[in-house]
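TASK: fixed-backbone design
INPUT:
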């Protein structure tokens, strides 16, 4: 299939393009580069041995630009990664998050249907479960209260897409709820490239390891978890990328509206991650316990059985692989792209 990949220059998008090519698909990327570098796409091209990845510097809020992309590159499906994703920033800039993520997606959905491209995979998030009602989290777990505008945009966009599908069942829409994507391509050529101080655990750890930060702050050690620190379902970004290929196959089978968790089903604490990183790289990570971070939940990990059953997809990489590949990327690219 030919796939429009919005946000394809970003962390998850760039890894997904590789897996799409490996599975025989073709892509065209639309990204405004507000949180990414065109170098990522050059590196993807190197990895998959093609001269270049078809790319438009386009904003998903720009109807004319999207129309041009789809006129020049008629597509069978769209994988929609484009969006702003910093939880903390979304609290201070709610309008910007609603405008970019919601208005942008509304424009995209309209242009897609005008071009007869009614097959969509959407990057949703485990954040829609809020403080989860059950652990491990199945897709039947009710959505919870999102404590930040970023999470609200994901939850609202899911609702919008469900309504679109109800009104026009010729859409095939797969909502993928990612747990905690980490790691990098094993080549070390592409990876996560946060601006400024990393918000997320793994990039913070790799920046401590490379000497950019003195120590890790552990946000709370008094949660109701085995060691008191927060427990999450970390998933290797290459596994996550392959989940999108599996979701495309479901779209080819005319799945209608479907929701899947993409996680490993295993929960690791902050200190488990620190120790796994130390074990797999041999580097000591100094840390200090700080107060809890507002909005954090104690425990979040998936029940990934539905994706295994229906998409024939399961995560293959373990936490040591995630640490090794995140470190390989950081070490080779201390300043990012
Ligand atoms: P990322 O920031 O690396 O990638 C997002 C890409 O979208 C960037 O390249 C950015 O330039 C682009 N973009 C943003 N707004 C745009 C716009 N208006 N028009 C065109 N391009 C635009 O983030 P990522 O980690 O690769 O995440 C991809 C998607 O997955 C996002 O929607 C994110 O919310 C979602 N998600 C991410 C995580 C995570 O922890 N990384 C977890 C769950 C869900
Ligand atoms: C993991 C654990 C922290 C940093 C976020 C978003 C979520 C999704 C994935 C997009 C928690 C602890 C972290 C640090 C720490 N993104 N931590 N020190 O919060 O589970 O999920 O990314 O959809 O919506 O909220 O991931 O990596 O920030 O935190 O102790 O410097 O590490 O408290 O327990 P989180 P994270």
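OUTPUT:
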């Amino acid at each position: 299939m030919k796939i429009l990949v919005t946000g394809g220059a970003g962390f998850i998008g760039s890894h997904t393009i590789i897996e799409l090519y490996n599975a025989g698909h073709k892509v065209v990327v639309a990204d405004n580069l507000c949180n990414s570098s065109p170098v990522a796409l050059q590196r993807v091209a190197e990895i998959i041995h093609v001269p270049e990845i078809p790319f438009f510097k386009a904003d998903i809020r720009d109807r004319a630009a999207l129309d041009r992309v789809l006129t020049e590159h008629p597509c069978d499906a769209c994988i929609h990664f484009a969006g702003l994703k910093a939880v903390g920033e979304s609290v201070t800039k709610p309008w910007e998050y609603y405008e970019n993520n919601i208005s942008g997606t509304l424009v995209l959905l309209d242009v897609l249907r005008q071009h007869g491209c009614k097959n969509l995979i959407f990057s949703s998030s485990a954040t829609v479960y809020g403080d989860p009602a059950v652990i491990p989290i199945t897709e039947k777990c009710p959505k919870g209260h999102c404590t930040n505008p970023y999470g609200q945009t994901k939850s609202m966009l899911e609702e919008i897409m469900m309504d679109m599908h109800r009104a026009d069942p010729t859409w095939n829409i797969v909502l993928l709820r990612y747990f905690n994507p980490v790691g990098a391509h094993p080549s070390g050529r592409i990876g996560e490239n946060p601006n400024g101080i990393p918000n997320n655990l793994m990039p913070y750890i790799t920046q401590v390891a490379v000497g950019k930060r003195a120590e890790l702050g552990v946000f709370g050690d008094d949660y109701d978890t085995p060691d008191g620190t927060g427990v999450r379902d970390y998933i290797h970004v290459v596994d996550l990328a392959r989940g999108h290929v599996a979701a495309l196959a479901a779209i080819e089978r005319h799945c209608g509206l479907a929701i899947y968790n993409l996680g490993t089903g295993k929960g690791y604490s902050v200190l488990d991650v620190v120790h796994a990183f130390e074990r797999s790289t041999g580097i000591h990570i100094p840390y200090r316990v700080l107060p809890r971070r507002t909005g954090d939940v104690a425990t979040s990990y998936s029940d990934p059985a539905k994706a295994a059953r229906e998409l024939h997809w399961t995560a293959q990489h373990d936490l040591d692989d995630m640490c090794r590949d995140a470190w390989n990327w950081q070490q080779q690219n201390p300043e990012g792209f």
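COMMENT: Residues 94-114 form the longest helix (21 residues).
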